[in-house]
């Protein structure tokens, strides 16, 4: 194993035997391998990739794609059918939090038992116990049987143990999707601190924004196959395109992603380089349109009854612009052409950074509202007004339209990175960060 890698996975596969009835399982035991009474389900198929020390890698994929199986194989709770896994460092896993707790034991007793499983001696656990108890914040319940805990208390305690064992490798499987917002933020802050200390993190989430914000690279799994590995924004865009595709188009999209596999990292780097703000002289409040400023990372979902056309930003003078001035008012417009009749139609926009972090946007109406009916062949003009409160930088705009097809509210069409724009610097600029909050400073000489 390379010394720079914390995890190496080579041609890893896992097959489960599916029995229709308990009787078939019993017959298999006595068949001596002469006959199969089961069906094979390959949850993972020849997966290969590596994770460097100190790297945070996100894993995305549809339900049933093999994400949880992969993590269980890495943690050693499942044995592979074929292939090899090599890890370098103590592993702490946040999989099914609290699943290893004994409900009859107290929280305190479970802390010591769980920590021992993770490799800590009793003395080491004693030294860490105050930190574990403080993080969990369950008060006197620490000495009550775990069977009296709420699910939230169970999660708090399990998480507190897992992140206080000084693990070199942290495995997270949707564990942070539970708990209240304050606890989630506390968990993320702790994980960020572990990242700063050089921990390697393998992170599974259905939240594309979290993967983009949190991870250095991402892996796209589907039906047990590693479809793509690359920069998080590029991978998440393809993941979202895949999950919103119709069943008949999904295999075609998967083939396209396979063909792009080797180029994803280079593609995203060139897109980001193209999107980096150029050094310009401060000033002008004049907006203009640069025909060479075009997004290279646009992903258009399959049309499902509608098609988004001509997304663009316009000034108050009704001129197209992609170089904007902070503090000015703009109009984001696009057309939507419908190819089938739909109801409850809503439109949306989202502004993102070059890394894919969602800054904010809007929908044309609340959930349950929208245009009552749009007919096949109809074309609708959509407009969103906004004040540019962004500081100097480069940004992307999404566009989307949803509606009811039958009883299901679904995307009719969506375009990721539909439009690219820059915000120019202004004279005597004192604002910092991404968003201008109109902060005013007061400095007084107290001497």
UniProtKB/TrEMBL annotation:
Transmembrane segments: none annotated. SUPFAM superfamilies: P-loop containing nucleoside triphosphate hydrolases. The keyword Lyase does not apply. GO terms for cellular component: membrane. Residues 268-291 are annotated as: Disordered. PROSITE patterns: ABC_TRANSPORTER_1 (PS00211), ABC_TRANSPORTER_2 (PS50893). Belongs to the ABC transporter superfamily. This is Teichoic acids export ATP-binding protein TagH.
